[in-house]
Amino acid sequence: MTESPLSGPRPHPYAHFVPTLNKLRSGSADTTTPSALRRLRVVLTVFFALDGFIFAGWVVRIPAIKEQTGASSSALGLALLGVSVGAVVTMVFTGRLCRRFGSHPVTVVCAVLLSLSVALPPLTHSAMALAAVLLVFGAAYGGINVAFNSAAVDLVAALRRPIMPSFHAAFSLGGMVGAGLGGLIAGSLSPTTHLLGLTLIGLLVTAVAGPALLRLAPPAAPTGQPDKATGPRRLDSRTRRLVLIFGFIALCTAFGEGALADWGALHLEQDLNAHPGLAAAGYSAFALAMTLGRLSGTTLLERLGQTPIIVAGGATAAAGMLLGALAPTVWLALAGFLVTGLGLANLFPVAVERAGALAGPSGVATASTLGYGGMLLGPPAIGFMADWFTLPVALTSVAVLAGVAGVIGYATRR
Q: What predicted TM-score, i.e. pTM, was given to this entire model?
C-alpha cells in the first residue's frame, strides 16, 4: 500500500478504498473512529473484569479445597505449581498466536477455556489430581492475560493516553467482587456449586462480549510507528534488556498479588483465628485497594510519570506487607493488605505497557511471562517457606520483592 500525502509524495489513486476493502474481507468493524475505540475499550474492560472475577472466585475456595484433598502446605504449594506451569508455558507461545490469529480471537477462546476449567478443582480428591486440573486452568489463565494485554497495548497506542491501569482496575474490581461474593457464600455453598456457578457466568459473559470483540479489528499503529502485525520486530540488545527489566519489575510486584490471593485468607484464618467469611474479605480488601489505585493510575501517570509511581509504589507496598504479615490482630492485618494493594496497584500495568510499547506482542508476552510467573510461582514458594518457617515470615518476602521493584525503578530511571 502506498504512503499517504502526509508521509509520501504519491498517494495511490484508490487508497481511500483500502480500509473499506479490508473491512469487508475481515468482517471486522473499523476501529479508527473514536466511537469504535470506545467500544473496544469497553469490551476489553469486560474481559479483564471477568478474568479477575473467575480467578478470585477460585482463590477464596483454596482453604476448602485444601481440606477436601487433605494436602499439607507444601503439597498444596506443589499443586498450585500446576497453575504456574500451565500459565508460563502458554504465555511463551501466546504472543505468536496473537501475531498469527489476532489478539481478539485468542482472548475469546481463552475466556471459554478459563470458564470451563474453573469448575474442575472441586472434583479432585488428591494433591496430584488437583495439580493436573490446575495445569489446564493455568494454561487458560496465562493465555487470556497475554492476549488481552496485547490488545490493550494496541489500544493505548491508538489513543495515545496511559489508560493501561484502567484495564487492570477492571481486573481488580472483578477480583474484589469475586472474592466478596465467595466470602458471602463460603459457609452456605459447596466449592463444587460455587465454581460451577462461575463457569456458567463466564460462559454467559463470553457469549455476549465475545462476538462484540471479534467484530472489532485491532487499531492500526499510529502514524510514524511500525505496524506490529507485519511480523516480529528485530530488537537490539538494549531494547531486550529494557523489556526484561520491565518484566522483572512485574515479577517482583505480581509475586505479592499471587501470595495474597492464595495465602492471604489462610493467614487470617489460621494465624489470626479469623472467621472464614472475614478471612475471605482479606483478598477483597486488597483487591479494593488495587482497584482504587488503578482507577487513579492514568491521572497519576500523566501528572507524575512512571519513575515516581514505581518508586513510591514499591516503598508503600513493602511497608504495607510488613504490617499485613506481622500484625497481631486481624484488623491491623487487613489494613496492611489495603496499603499493600495501593502500593502495588500501578506497577504491573506500567511494566507490561512499556514492554509492549517497546516490542509489541512479544514484549507483552515476555513481561507477562515474568510477571504472571511471579504471581503464580509465588504461592508455591510461600508454601515451602511456610513449612520451613511460618506463614507470617514467608509473607514478608512480598515486602522484600516490592522494595526491590522500587529500587530497580529508581536505578533505571534514565
A: 0.75
Q: Is residue 17 part of a domain?
A: no
Q: Which residue has the cell 525503578?
A: 409
Q: In this structure, are residues 175 and 56 in contact, taking their beta carbons and an 8 Å threshold? A: yes
* CATH code of the domain containing 209: 1.20.1250.20
Side-chain half-sphere CA neighbours of 6 within 13 A:
3
pLDDT tens, residue by residue, 357-408: 787 777 888 888 888 778 767 777 888 899 899 999 999 999 999 999 999 8
Amino acid at 16: H
Q: Is residue 119 pLDDT above 80, yes or no?
A: yes
Does 1 fall in a domain?
A: no
Number of domains the chain contains: 1
Q: What percent of the chain has pLDDT over 90?
A: 36
| Orientation of helix 103-117 relative to helix 191-214, angle to 10° | 170
Joined together, the cell numbers standing for residue 286 give 486488597
381/62 Cα distance (integer angstroms): 16
- Domain range for 79: 34-220+228-411
In a domain, 6, yes or no: no
Number of other CB atoms surrounding residue 196 within 10 Å: 16
Q: Nearest 5°: phi and psi at 32?
A: -95, -15
In the three-class reduction of DSSP (H, G, I as helix; E, B as strand; rest coil), residue 6 is classed as coil
Domain membership flag for residue 20: no
Name 146's Cβ contacts closer than 8 Å, sequence gap at least 6: 90, 91, 94, 95, 98, 361, 364, 365, 368, 369
The cell 504449594 sits on which residue? 77
- Do 218 and 154 meet the contact criterion of CB atoms below 8 Å apart? yes
Model confidence over 372-385: pLDDT tens digits? 778 767 777 888 89
* Structural contact between residues 399 and 318, judged by C-beta atoms closer than 8 angstroms: yes
Dist. CA 353–CA 72, nearest whole Å: 38
